[in-house]
Design a protein that fits this description.
Bound molecules: 5-O-phosphono-beta-D-ribofuranose
Strand content: 5-15%
Radius of gyration: 19 Å
């Protein structure tokens, strides 16, 4: 028996799949996760490393689309849902089954625990849409990446949803030069940071560098 709150999401996904909306107005990336307890890893949060949300919004100028029929001004967007493979298998199935028709080009799917089945099952149902799996914990890695021959999934290391977002945008960039430019610019920013830190470490010396860069407690 499917709960009403879940059934209404399933119905909504199917209705949206029938709408045939212009591709510029549909989310390009779908982010799903097994539980809202995965959100700190999938999005980033206080005292957590930055996640997919930060990569997309802060580094690559994407916007989150919260209403399917009311796209943000940003050309490139993503959407976010919780759908558990084990608690709400119908919702997982509906999301994966309708994703392509709803205009999604790539899915990022994260799950934790030892039975992290959302990414691999979504990859099988959404095929040929690419799915990037994020094992939310180290113990989830095997269940995310362990797919049989002929049933592909792409995956990142445990917790690295930031990289999953970059990979998703790399896929989209094959068709959108603007995204290619944003990825290159992001990488140049990384290089600039390393160069500046390296020069400072060399020129300030280790004690001077610690004074400049570290909190007093760390030194
Ligand atoms: C997995 O079980 C979820 O992806 C989550 O990582 C884990 C625990 O879920 P909660 O009990 O916190 O909802 O399916």
């Amino acid at each position: 028996m499917t709960a009403d709150s879940v059934q209404s999401l399933i119905d909504q996904l199917h209705e949206e799949a029938e709408m045939d909306r212009p591709t510029e107005e549909t989310p390009d990336i779908g982010i799903i996760m097994g539980s809202d307890s995965d959100l700190p890893t999938m999005a980033g949060g206080k005292d957590k490393r930055p996640g997919a949300y930060a990569a997309l919004v802060e580094e690559l100028d994407f916007a989150e689309q919260t209403e399917y029929t009311d796209a943000p001004d940003a050309r490139f967007t993503f959407e976010t849902f919780v759908c558990s493979a084990h608690r709400t298998p119908d919702l997982m199935y509906a999301y994966a089954e309708t994703a392509e028709a709803r205009g999604i080009d790539v899915i990022i799917a994260g799950a934790g625990g030892k039975s992290a089945d959302l990414p691999n099952m979504t990859a099988s149902i959404a095929y040929p849409l690419p799915v990037i799996g994020v094992p939310v914990q180290e113990k989830s890695v095997d269940s995310v990446i362990g797919m049989p021959q002929g049933a592909p999934i792409t995956a990142v290391d445990a917790g690295k949803s930031f990289n999953a977002a970059l990979t998703a945008v790399q896929m989209l960039a094959r068709e959108h030069d603007e995204l290619r430019d944003r990825l290159v610019s992001y990488h140049q920013g990384l290089q600039t940071g390393v160069g500046e830190v390296s020069r400072d470490l060399h020129e300030l010396g280790t004690p001077g560098f610690k004074d400049e860069y570290w909190d007093t407690d760390e030194a």
